[in-house]
């Protein structure tokens, strides 16, 4: 089933574009890397090696897959298709399911930036370059469920919570120039993180 944004779905399909220029493709690749570097849930998966020792390489491959989807696939590009592909890659690479709506947020941002790149408009990418990353965060991860076989040790849970407390600073919104609704203020314990657990959890 296609994942949809909580607001009833994301943007409509991006019209079938002409061939993307080499300049625009390079700019879009940079934008994906910049957005991923500010994606709290993904950075937690990398830092905690949810995908194993090569978690960083898997995150890079994830970004390359998205760039390929934008630049090499034919036909209109639907928000739901991008979201589904991202969830599949996250599950495959990190054995995890991000349940904080950050996948939908990132997908929407990338669709907007891709459309701007087709028009040789790189203003959003320039804002990303110039924005200051506080901690790791842009999207505030409220709950991340990583699929694992058994319930994790309480000591691991404590380590993750401590790490989030150390990294937490007032996160910026995703750097695309549009208003965003206010987020609830994190409590004293920071984000709620459900540590890895093994088991065949599937995304509806």
From TrEMBL:
Ranges of compositional bias, category Acidic residues: 146-171
InterPro entries tied to this protein: Pre-rRNA_process_TSR2
Record-level GO BP terms: rRNA processing
Biased composition (Polar residues): 133-143
Keywords recorded for this protein, A-Z: rRNA processing
Cited Pfam families: WGG
Keyword rRNA processing: yes
Positions of region (Disordered): 133-204
PANTHER family in the cross-refs: PRE-RRNA-PROCESSING PROTEIN TSR2 HOMOLOG
Family stated for the protein in its record: Belongs to the TSR2 family.
Protein's recorded name: Pre-rRNA-processing protein TSR2
């Amino acid at each position: 089933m296609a994942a949809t944004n909580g607001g009833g779905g994301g943007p409509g399909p991006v019209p079938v574009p002409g061939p993307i220029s080499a300049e625009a493709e390079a700019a879009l690749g940079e934008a994906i890397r910049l957005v991923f570097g500010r994606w709290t849930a993904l950075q937690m998966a990398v830092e905690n090696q949810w995908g194993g020792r090569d978690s960083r390489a898997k995150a890079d491959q994830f970004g390359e897959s998205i760039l390929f989807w934008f630049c090499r696939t034919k036909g209109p590009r639907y928000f739901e298709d991008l979201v589904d592909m991202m969830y599949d890659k996250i599950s495959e690479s990190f054995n995890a399911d991000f349940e904080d709506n950050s996948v939908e947020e990132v997908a929407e941002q990338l669709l907007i930036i891709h459309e701007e790149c087709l028009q040789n408009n790189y203003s959003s990418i320039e804002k990303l370059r110039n924005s200051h990353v506080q901690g790791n965060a842009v999207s505030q991860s409220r709950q991340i469920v990583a699929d694992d076989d058994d319930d994790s040790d309480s000591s691991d849970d404590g380590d993750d919570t401590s790490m989030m407390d150390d990294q937490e600073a007032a996160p910026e919104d995703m750097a695309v120039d549009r208003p965003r609704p206010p987020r609830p203020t994190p409590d004293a314990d920071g984000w709620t993180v459900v540590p890895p657990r093994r088991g065949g959890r599937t995304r509806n």
